[in-house]
């Protein structure tokens, strides 16, 4: 990372602390992702990061979504993790023909977070 990037990371860490958040559990790649999303503006990135932390803590309080919270979505068998690609990235396959409008939108949102967390964990 270049000098400007390191300075932006340090400024972002301070801004997150000023907003009442913490960056202890997150490494430079995660914080850099937020900086890039906000055009390397540390203040905007810090605000977005703290909002994400708040959302994540409320939506996924245990740190993961248990399968017991998404039984209907899992039963539909519309998404599969198929190992890794040639480049080492997880392959996630969704079968659109098995997706029908959700009766419970919260369960549908949890399913998406569940599948993305599983893919990232690989």
UniProtKB/TrEMBL annotation:
Species of origin: Salix koriyanagi
Tree of life domain: Eukaryota
Domain CRAL/TRIO N-terminal positions: 27-52
Protein name stated in the entry: SEC14 CYTOSOLIC FACTOR-LIKE
Coiled coil: none
SUPFAM superfamilies: CRAL/TRIO domain, CRAL/TRIO N-terminal domain
Transmembrane segments: none
Listed InterPro entries: CRAL-TRIO_dom_sf (IPR036865), CRAL/TRIO_N_dom (IPR011074), CRAL/TRIO_N_dom_sf (IPR036273)
Gene3D superfamilies found in the cross-reference section: CRAL-TRIO lipid binding domain
